[in-house]
Design a protein that fits this description.
The complex is a heterodimer of chains A (478) and B (168).
Chain A: H1 24-55, H2 57-84, E1 87-90, E2 95-100, E3 106-111, E4 115-121, H3 124-128, E5 131-138, E6 145-152, H4 153-167, E7 180-184, H5 187-195, H6 198-218, H7 221-244, E8 248-252, E9 255-260, E10 266-270, E11 275-283, E12 291-298, E13 311-318, H8 319-329, E14 341-342, H9 347-350, E15 359-362, E16 366-371, E17 375-382, E18 388-393, H10 395-400, E19 402-408, E20 416-422, H11 423-442
Antiparallel strand pairs in A: 1-2, 2-3, 4-5, 5-6, 7-8, 8-9, 9-10, 11-12, 11-17, 12-13, 14-15, 15-16, 16-17, 18-19, 19-20
Helix pairs in contact in A: 1-2, 5-7, 6-7
Chain B: E1 19-20, H1 24-49, H2 54-81, E2 83-86, E3 90-95, E4 100-106, E5 112-116, H3 119-124, E6 127-132, E7 140-145, H4 147-164
The chains are: A alpha+beta (478), B alpha+beta (168).
Amino acid sequence: MSIGPRDSRPTAAPTSRRRTHPLTPVINSVRDLGILLGVAVVFFNDGLLQLAGDVGGILGVLLLVGGVGAVLVVVLAVNYRVWLRTEYFFDESGDFGLDSGILQRNERRLSLSRLQTADINRPLLGRVVGLSQVRVEVAGGGDSRVVLAYLSDADAHALRAEIVARAAGLAPDAGEAPEVVLVTVPTGDLVVSLLLRSETLILFLVTILVVFSVTAQEGPAGLMLVLLSGGVPLLAVFAQFNRFFGFTVADSPDGLRLRHGLANVQSQTVPPGRVQAIEIAEPLLWRRKGWVRVSLNVAGLQGQQDGQQEQMLLPVAPHAVAREIIGRVMTGVDPGTMNLVPAPPRARRRAWLQFANLGVGHDDRVLVTSRGFLTRRVAVIPHARTQSVGVTQGPWQRSLGLASVRVDSTPGPVTVVALHRSAGEARQIAEQQLHRAARARASGPAERWMIAPGRPQPGGSSTGTPGGAPPAEEEPDP
Amino acid sequence: MAAAQSVDDAFAPPGEPWHPVSPRLATARRITMMLVMLLVLLVVGLVALVDEARPLAGVLVVVWMVVVVWMWWLIGRRVRSFGYAERADDLLVTSGIMFRRLVIVPYGRMQLVDITAGPLDRQLGVATVQLHTAAASTDATIPGLPPAEAAGLRDRLAARGEQRSAGL
């Protein structure tokens, strides 16, 4: 599925060795000093104060200040050494290199022909002084990434562009691919949507229950708990708000760019053809507003392998907008127009809450399943992205003659499962899905939204597009 | 398959019967189970050292025996429930009694095939073959194969995987 000749090796023009921004050691020292201070306060607070007190008066204060100063100098010196010995460059064979470490040297080479992502992040500390980090990831096992911190915004963008251009076999100075902003999530919508999430509501109800029972028993003292425990759901909401603030989806030739974050601005590029599955979630209280949330399974995207973050395509958006974006990620796919076959009526006895939402259907491109009670979840997986299929049956299901079918996708937030089908039908769905998967794979790559008809052939496009190459080169997941 | 409606058809073997796994797997699992249960018995014995608790210890020993017999029987059933079948394009693995499971992995999707065998397994001559795809949720594990069969299966799978490799 590569675009252009497969053997287009990354441009092999070595560069001189470069260092990160000179402010890097200062920022890192601030970070380290913060950590040290925190540790000192937590563990040695009494000891330090007592020491200062014992020595007494001005001398004690001087001792304290001097101590902190000495630590500061050491930390600065170490970080300066680290910065001095951290160099990045492109070598003759087209690899991206990063040499670092003062005691233990670490020389890392990333083969750009296997580039997965090159993203720009702006952590809080860097942002204060206007610096960014660049994160480069290639296909491979767990530790196949480097994070370059810190670079000036301009340098970061230039470096990112250079990495992508080299990976695509273009001139290193091809420049940054232009982008067109498609959607920006309004802050108001984000706040309202987070408050109306099913999880938030459940948390809130639980909190109210706890508070009531405690107040009833403990009297006014229990009211203190109101303030404390009432904060928990709000904290959860705020964490989400902090992550998804200013969520922007932009179209660029090397993929869909996602940018979001309040304190830390993250940016990610979802390269074409890397989307393995999508899920459209519709929490109960969003339905009146006509909002949905869209998340993705993306092969080898930042955070995906660690499983710490669910990859969001849209934290909240009206139906129509979501459909348009989904249509871009999977060309022309519109799960809303597909006919889903409901579960057999007896499945109501096994799952009466979500029965109305249970369904499965397919067209010649994708398989769609739906489930969920409070939050209706519609999962979409292209046939060609089917990894394996499974049929499961618990004792209760067996007594009703039901079974569930799961279609396995790469790690991520999306689970594709057709719950509570007739047992025979379940096996049939599984077998047919395998047939469709085999046929879809045989008839070539289907998921190339970037080079859909009418779109210009993009430049920085072979950013690790999977397919076609030897398998060793393209499997990002363990 | 089309007219399949009966309860068991969801887990029916594909034409030929399921390849069973070695009964020695049951031996291995029973040995492990007994080691754990003997530790439990030791604790019960300690309880019996206290005079007042002696009647309780008696009850516990009876419960212990019931549990051992039940697990002994259950392990046998569970081991017999494992089965696999190689088709032209995919591998089927089934298992489970209460919670039944069937996984079908196309050869083209396999990323690697593992064989593992612990010290006890090696002593008894059983090995576990596990298939990995790009999906972490693919749970295709065949325990209790004789080492020669496991190696043969792995080599066949690897060869077919190479022929049909489909990328992501």
